[in-house]
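The following block was generated as part of the benchmark described in Methods. Ligand: FE2/S2 (inorganic) cluster.
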Amino acid sequence: MAVAFSEKTKERFKAILAKYPEKGAALLPAMWLAQKEFSVITPEVEEYVAKLLGVPLVRVHEVLTFYTMYAAKPLGKYHLQLCTNISCTLLGAEDILEHLKDKLQIGAGETTPDKKFTLSTVECLGYCGTAPVLQVNDDFHENLTTKKVDELLAKLK
Ligand code: FES
């Protein structure tokens, strides 16, 4: 079946387009809509978005592979994105990463067999003042410690 937005998402897409002087400028929010609609941005979804906006397919692919907020492969129910940039690393992100790997029994870029957790390492999340930071779906967890990670995982399991 061909990829297409639902009627509700088409309306949201129209509202987004109205905010931009030209369609191509709406690429990032259009891709976000696509991700919300389809969960993962497959090559078919990339093609659909490119056609909708009249932009080259390579532009969509560049955005998909540059920004960690977009998923090119299926994610677990909870996407754990640990910042491993300088402030977070200086304040213990490496220990947090090892702890997460140990607790979840997966490596960075992997999903648990039950599809509950995907673990990723990402660049600066913009919370350097309260590093180390973990983004779980749309929520941010700051001043992380291994104890806080354990509490968080216990809540999510
Ligand atoms: S370095 Fe981790 S939030 Fe900025």
